[in-house]
Design a protein that fits this description.
It comes from Channa argus (Northern snakehead). This is SGNH hydrolase-type esterase domain-containing protein. By secondary structure, the protein is an alpha/beta fold. The chain has a domain of 159 residues: 3-Layer(aba) Sandwich (Rossmann fold), CATH 3.40.50.12700. The protein contains seven helices and five strands. A five-stranded parallel beta sheet has the order 2-1-3-4-5, sandwiched between helices. The protein is elongated and about 85 Å long.
């Protein structure tokens, strides 16, 4: 008898499951009963009925051979700029909606003269070109050489017959010494008749910035946000009064 009970105990006792980490167990326990006779009462789900997918053969509509070919519109491209603003670091923050600004810090007259042809070729929609340069040249204290560079530059612009050029004059310095200020003033005075003689348009910035500390950054050389806005508005005004 003892051996029989021992055998029954071994048969009825379930095998211990292997240990499973807590985070690998399902969060929701499925509703199911293990009683065989309870399926009729709705406790056990009945056999699943699978629906057979019915394939529908849809033939593409026949294309009329006499219909004209469909035209696909090209992707929309934004229009190019109508104005280029090219210069040294003074024009860094000069922005206009229909213009594109190119700033070359430390550039001289000869540097800008070399870049003009390529920039104009790359932007055929720009019919107006604003050029601001000369401040870095005045630091060399060679006024006669600077004048020759400007005259050579103006002569090179005559080959662009379908463009209108506006020479943006220098702005004065603030607290950078009398010598630099006087050289910029002399350049401003000399540029006005020279620009007109070459069929170009001059933008007078000197009087607008003279003794206006609120328009300058702390370096007394570059315009701040307000100064850049005033420079932009002065350029727009000069273009409008030129008849364009």
């Amino acid at each position: 008898m003892e051996n029989r009970f021992t055998v029954l105990e071994e048969l009825e006792s379930p095998t211990s499951p292997a240990a499973v980490p807590c985070d690998s167990l399902p969060r929701e326990i499925p509703h199911c009963s293990t009683s065989r006779g309870q399926r009729g009462r709705g406790l056990l789900p009945g056999p699943r009925q699978t629906r057979r997918a019915t394939a529908t053969n849809t033939m593409p509509p026949e294309r009329n051979p006499h219909a004209p070919p469909r035209r696909t519109s090209p992707p929309h491209r934004p229009p190019g700029p109508t104005m280029l603003i090219i210069g040294d670091s003074i024009v860094r923050d000069v922005r206009l909606k229909s213009a594109k600004t190119f700033c070359f810090p430390g550039a001289t007259v000869t540097d800008i003269a070399e870049k003009i042809p390529n920039l104009i070729e790359r932007h055929p929609t720009a019919t107006k070109v604003v050029i601001h340069v000369g401040t870095n040249d005045t630091k060399r204290q060679q006024s006669e050489l600077l004048k020759r560079d400007f005259v050579s530059f103006f002569n090179s612009l005559e080959s662009f017959h379908d463009r209108r050029f506006f020479i943006s004059g220098p702005i004065p310095t603030l607290g950078r010494g009398v010598g630099w200020f006087s050289r910029l003033l002399s350049l401003h005075t000399w540029l006005q008749p020279q620009v007109s003689a070459h069929g170009l348009f001059y933008v007078d910035n000197f009087n607008l910035f003279w003794d206006r500390p609120q328009y300058f950054k702390q370096d007394g050389l570059h315009p701040n946000f307000l100064g850049s806005r005033m420079l932009t508005e002065n350029i727009v005004h000069s273009i409008s009064v030129s008849g364009d």
